[in-house]
Design goal:
Elements lengths: L2 E8 L8 E8 L6 E10 L2 H8 L8 E2 L4 E8 L11 E4 L9 E5 L3 E3 L6 H21 L7 E4 L5 H12 L3 E6 L2 H9 L4 E4 L5 H8 L5 E6 L6 H6 L1 E9 L13 H5 L4 E3 L3 H4 L3 H16 L7 E6 L3 H9 L6 E5 L1
Parallel strand pairs: 9-10, 9-12, 10-11, 12-13, 13-14, 15-16
Antiparallel strand pairs: 1-2, 1-4, 3-5, 3-7, 3-16, 5-6, 6-8
C-alpha cells in the first residue's frame, strides 16, 4: 500500500524558515510498527532543538515527537495495539505529518472521551512532570519548590501536579498576564523574570532557607540564580535550555552552593522500557482524567503554518500548550 501525505522536513539546521512542507510516500508498517493517521500534533521545544541542531539528527530529517491519532494498519508482532485504536504517539521522528509509520512500542491507547487535541497537548508534558516531580526529585507535602517557565505547557501542568502533592510553588514567568495564568493553575508565588529579584524573593518566601529543588528549563539566563535559590543539599534539575545551554562550571561551584546536586534528566531514560513508558503514561492519564490537572491549550496552528508556530514558541508568545492541526 502506498500512502502519500504532507509532512514537515528540514534539509539543514537553522531558524523556523528551514522547515518545508513536502509530499512523503508511506509504505506498509513493518514488524513492530503501526500506521497512524494524525489528528492533532504537539509543539515541543524538543522539536526546536532538533531543528537547530542542538540535538543532531541525520539530514534531511522529519520533525515532530508527539501526536494523537487513529491506528490505520499494524505490522507483524504488534499485540497490544489494534486497527481503529485512538492513540498517543509518544516518540517520532515524523509527527509533523498527516500520517506516519510509528514504533508501536511508543503508542499508548487513549481513554474513551479524551479529546485528541488534549492528548496531543498533554501526554509528553504530563509524563515529563511525572518523572520530574515523582522520580527525579520526589516532591513531598509541605515543601516549597521553584519551577521556571510556570505558564508554559509543562509549567502549568507542574503547578497543578505539585499542588496535588501538597507542595507550595514559586514559579517564574515573563509577563503579568502569564503570572495570572500561573496563579490560576496552582502557582502560589508567580515571579516575573526581569522585574522581580528572583533570589531575594525566593529567600523571602523561604525565610532565608532556599528551596530544596529548582526545576529549570530556561538554561543560560537562569542557571546562576537557580543555584543561588537552592537550600543546603538542594538539587538543580536542568531539563531544558530555551535561552541556550547553561555555562560551563567547575565542580567546586556545587560545594559553594551548599553541596548542591545537579542533574540533566532525559525523558528517554525515565521511559526506556515499555513498562516504564506505560506506567508513566497511566499516571499522567490518571491525573488528567481525575480532574487534578486541567490542560490549557493556549493556541492552535495549521500544519501549513508550522513556521509561525515555531516563531511564536521561541519568542515566548505562547501560553500553555500549542497544538498543530494536520
Amino acid at each position: 500500500m502506498s500512502n502519500t501525505v504532507t509532512a514537515v522536513r528540514v534539509h539543514h539546521y537553522g531558524g523556523p524558515e528551514v522547515m518545508q512542507l513536502e509530499q512523503v510516500a508511506l509504505g506498509d508498517p513493518g514488524p513492530g510498527q503501526a500506521l497512524v493517521r494524525n489528528t492533532a500534533i504537539a509543539l515541543n521545544f524538543y522539536d526546536v532543538y532538533e531543528r537547530t541542531g542542538l540535538y543532531p539528527v541525520d539530514l534531511p530529517a522529519p520533525l515532530g515527537c508527539e501526536s494523537a491519532g487513529v491506528v490505520e494498519a499494524i505490522g507483524e508482532d504488534v499485540h497490544d495495539i489494534k486497527v481503529g485504536d485512538r492513540v498517543a504517539v509518544l516518540a517520532g521522528p515524523g509527527n509533523y505529518a498527516q500520517a506516519m509509520i510509528a514504533d508501536a512500542g511508543q503508542l499508548v491507547v487513549l481513554p474513551e472521551g479524551m479529546d485528541d487535541k488534549v492528548a496531543a497537548a498533554a501526554m509528553t508534558k504530563a509524563m515529563t512532570v511525572e518523572y520530574l516531580l515523582e522520580r527525579c526529585f520526589k516532591v513531598r507535602r509541605g515543601q516549597t519548590i521553584l519551577f521556571h517557565a510556570a505558564a508554559g505547557g509543562v509549567g502549568l501542568i507542574a503547578c497543578q501536579w505539585a499542588q496535588a502533592l501538597g507542595a507550595r510553588i514559586i514559579g517564574t514567568v515573563s509577563t503579568t498576564a502569564k503570572a495570572e495564568l500561573a496563579r490560576q493553575n496552582g502557582c502560589d508565588v508567580p515571579l516575573i523574570l526581569g522585574q522581580d529579584n528572583l533570589v531575594e524573593r525566593v529567600m523571602e518566601e523561604t525565610k532565608g532557607a532556599g528551596v530544596p529543588v529548582v526545576y529549570d528549563s530556561i538554561g543560560k539566563d537562569t542557571f546562576e540564580d537557580s543555584l543561588d535559590c537552592l537550600a543546603r543539599l538542594g538539587m538543580l534539575v536542568s531539563f531544558g535550555q530555551s535561552s541556550g545551554e547553561p555555562p560551563p562550571f567547575q565542580p567546586r561551584l556545587l560545594a559553594q552552593h551548599g553541596s548542591a546536586f545537579i542533574t540533566r534528566p532525559d525523558m528517554h531514560d525515565y521511559t526506556a522500557t515499555r513498562q516504564e513508558l506505560v506506567s508513566s503514561a497511566d499516571r499522567a492519564l490518571s491525573m488528567i482524567t481525575s480532574g487534578k490537572i486541567r490542560i490549557t491549550i493556549g493556541q492552535t496552528f495549521r500544519l501549513a503554518d508550522i513556521v509561525e508556530a515555531h516563531e511564536a514558541l521561541e519568542r515566548r508568545r505562547t501560553v500553555g500548550s500549542t497544538v498543530i492541526i494536520p
